[in-house]
Structures are given as C-alpha cells and as structure tokens.
C-alpha cells in the first residue's frame, strides 16, 4: 500500500536553512533588525493561520469569538484571536475522543496522512493530554533544542546524560532526538529515578565519562548527593562541565557547587510548543527563538500585554508548527518577565528571565498572590537550605487561610530553628505576608514533592478544599 514515510514528508536541509543551528545561527541572525525579524514572523504567521482555518478546533474557537477568514491579515491582528489553554484542548478530547479535533490529523485521506508522533502529558492532575507532532514540526522542535545546546557551548564529542522521563511523556524522547540528530554528542538516556535508579545513574556517569547533564535541576542536584553516598566526589571522580536544565528560581550557586563548579544553563519550553527560549554564553536572560515563536506576556488577571520587566503569563504562537497541531496563542500559564537592554551577540531576539512560577498554581492568601515555585529562590541565600521545600496551604476552623513552608536544612536542630525564623522574616519581607516556616531534615520532603518519581517536583499541597 502507498503512503508517505517520515522523512519523505519534509525537507530536512530546508528546515535547517529556515531554523539554523550552530555557526549558521549567528551568521543568519547577528545584526538582523527587529523590522526584518517582524517581516519573517509575519510571513510564517499568515501561513500558520491559513493552516489553522482548516482545523475544526480553530474554526470553532475563532468562530465563537466572531472571527472570520480574512479578518487576520497581519501579525498586528493577533490580539483579535482568543487565547486558549490546556482546558480547551481537554474539552476537545472529551468531545472527540481519543485525540480531539485540534491536530488536523484526520483531514487528509489515510493514504495521504503523514506519519504522526503521539505523546501525552504525565496526567498527574487528571486525564493525560494527547500531544501530536508531524514530521516537519517534530524535527524543527528538535533543531531548536540543539540550537540552544550548541549556542550555550556544548563541546564537540561531548557525552550527555539525560534525566528527562520517557514513557508516554514527550521530554526525554525529543531531547534524545535533538542531541543524536543535531549534535555529535554521545547520549545516555538514563531517564528519571524510576527508570534508572539514582545509584545506577551515578555509575553510568563515571563509567562513560559523562561531562554534560540535562534535566530538571532538582533531580540533578539530588544526584550529586547520591554520588557522595556512593563514595564518589562530584567534580573529581565525575567531571561535569555543563548542566543544562530547567533551573527555575532555585539557587544556581548550590547546584554549581554540588557538581564541582559545573557551568549552568537554563532553558524554557512546554510539551505543546517545544523549546521557546534558552540562555546563551552570556548567561544574562533566556533568548526567545523569535524566528520560531511569537511570545506575548499578558497580565494574569486581565489578559492585557504587560510592560517590559513586569511579570506576565507566557502566551505562545509556534510559527513553525504548520503541519499537525498548529499552536496559536496558547496560554502556558507560566510566568516570566522580559529582560530589557541589548545583548552582546547583536541578536534581534528578546530575552526573558525564565520560569518564575505558574499562574494556575498560585496561592491567594489573604489577598496576596504567592507563587510556590518562587520560594526556593527567595531562600537561596541561606547556606543551611538544601534547596528542597514544599508549601502546604490550609484553612483553620475560623476560615483563616495559612501557608506553611517545610524547608529542608542542614545542621543541628537548635540552629535550624533559628534559621527558620530568619527564613520566615525574609519571606514576610519579600511576599508581603507572614507565612509559617518549619525546618525539616534533608530528604524529609521527598515523599511530598515526589522528587524521585516526577520530572517536576510538587511545590504546593493545597488542603483547603479537602
């Protein structure tokens, strides 16, 4: 029977010309004006909108907002389009199981349908969300990750160990595709602590001479402690040059020191969009890949654009996903802020601060908005703080809401109590409200954060609705 194969569905060399990596990246974009970049974005945006009009999900979403074909004539019109989020995708899945009607997969007849890559979210908060990729979109997504790694300074012939999860979730798979297809590094797909035990991960690092670790910062830091438990000295027995991960607001110094002075690089993306932004060699904010994404920062409550430097929800339009599952104004519900000023590479791309918290994981405590993911960064200056914590929101018999932060600390109990009071003072000053701080021994929050099971540890347990 006749139907297309994966690599017959797109031109890899053309995709690399459109979304360059390595030396070609700087050669293409260094010195480009914002006006020239805007023209490139508009060309890709209009092609994307034309594709989206073929898909029932967008026909329904845009039609309900009174939008008709022809109303969107330029990138200036993007704010006319409604924002959507994961809840809209899940509603599509519920109405049109099992994969919804947002991808466009069912439009061509079976003999013309392109190959499809299917992943899902973890499903820890409910039914997993299906995420579909066509060959072109999938490969460009991998190219953008490789662009980030090479821009950061990934050395030729590096040995990379990944702690991103596999199974049905997307992360570990597309990181492997990025490294093995668009760098010349050797790649060890160790996965999470459930897939490869932490002690075995450390052994792999030593045996194969791993010099680059990629994954989520929390687990990578934990692995340094596991190495010491195994009688190995991070930085001597295992020499890590680079750690590339989702660093959030946790202390970089503690993670760097745990691995003997390794260089740290942050990047940001979500399953639906791929790699959106990444740190460069200057380590001064994350460069938004604006040739591939149009990023809006919108006020959490009113949905209006925020000023440069102000916090806002990241709303993303993937300019490259014009085959399966076009993404136009997707609200990630992740918070960041723009970094003002010029960059040393003369790139036309804006920079962001990285992940600052989730708007849908925000705790409203007596009128104050608190983002649990930001707590670690606020406590980073305390030497006794291990970096591990969890926030517990509760409501007492009088109806008063409280927040207690369980903070892992090194040291004697008496010293920890004194340090907890100091932490409480810092949080009150930074958050504008008094919260409880309870010191606990290293490792005691693991069962609550599920750091050994999850790529992203839990930072909030909300018991108010229980």
Automatic annotation (TrEMBL):
InterPro entries: AMP-bd_C_sf (IPR045851), AMP-dep_Lig_C (IPR028154), ANL_N_sf (IPR042099)
Domain AMP-dependent ligase C-terminal per the UniProt entry, residue ranges: 367-464
Protein origin, superkingdom: Bacteria
Keywords in alphabetical order: Ligase
Pfam family of the protein (one): AMP-binding_C_2
GO molecular function: ligase activity
Protein name in the entry: Phenylacetate--CoA ligase
Natural source organism: Biformimicrobium ophioploci
């Amino acid at each position: 029977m006749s139907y297309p194969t994966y690599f017959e569905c797109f031109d890899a060399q053309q995709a690399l010309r459109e979304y360059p990596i390595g030396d070609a990246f700087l050669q293409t974009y260094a010195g480009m004006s914002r006006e020239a970049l805007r023209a490139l974005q508009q060309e890709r945006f209009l092609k994307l909108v034309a594709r989206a009009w073929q898909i029932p999900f967008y026909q329904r979403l845009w039609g309900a907002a009174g939008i008709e074909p022809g109303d969107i004539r330029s990138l200036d019109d993007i704010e006319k389009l409604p924002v959507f989020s994961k809840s809209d995708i899940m509603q599509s899945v519920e109405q049109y199981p099992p994969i919804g009607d947002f991808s466009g997969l069912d439009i061509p007849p079976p003999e013309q349908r392109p190959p499809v890559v299917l992943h899902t979210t973890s499903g820890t908060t409910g039914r997993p969300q299906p995420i579909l990729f066509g060959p072109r979109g999938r490969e460009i997504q991998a190219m953008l990750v490789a662009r980030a790694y090479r821009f950061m300074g990934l050395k030729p012939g590096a040995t990379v160990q990944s702690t991103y999860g596999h199974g049905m979730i997307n992360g570990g798979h597309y990181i492997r595709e990025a490294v093995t297809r668009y760098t010349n590094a050797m790649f060890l797909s160790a996965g999470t602590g459930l897939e490869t035990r932490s002690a075995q991960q450390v052994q792999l690092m030593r045996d194969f001479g791993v010099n680059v670790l990629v994954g989520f910062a929390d687990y990578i830091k934990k692995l340094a402690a596991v190495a010491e438990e195994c009688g190995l000295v991070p930085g001597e027995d295992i020499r890590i040059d680079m750690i590339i991960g989702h660093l959030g607001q946790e202390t970089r110094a503690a993670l760097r020191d745990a691995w003997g002075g390794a260089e740290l690089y942050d990047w940001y993306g979500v399953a639906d969009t791929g790699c959106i932004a990444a740190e460069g060699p200057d380590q001064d904010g994350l460069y938004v890949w604006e040739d591939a994404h149009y990023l809006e920062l919108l006020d959490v409550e009113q949905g209006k654009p925020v000023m440069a430097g102000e916090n806002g929800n990241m709303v993303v339009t993937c300019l490259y996903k014009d085959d399966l599952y076009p993404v136009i104004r997707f609200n990630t519900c992740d918070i960041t802020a723009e970094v003002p000023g010029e960059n040393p590479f003369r790139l036309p791309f804006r920079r962001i601060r990285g992940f600052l918290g989730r708007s849908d994981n925000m705790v409203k405590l007596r009128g104050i908005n608190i983002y649990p993911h930001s707590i670690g960064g606020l406590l980073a200056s305390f030497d006794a703080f291990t970096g591990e914590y969890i926030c517990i929101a509760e409501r007492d018999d009088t109806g008063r809401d409280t927040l207690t932060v369980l903070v892992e600390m090194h040291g004697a109990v008496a010293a920890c109590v004194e340090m907890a009071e100091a932490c409480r003072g810092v949080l009150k000053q930074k958050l504008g409200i008094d919260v409880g701080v309870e010191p606990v021994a290293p490792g005691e929050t693991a069962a609550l954060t599920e750091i050994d099971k999850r790529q992203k540890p839990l930072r909030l347990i909300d018991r108010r609705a229980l």
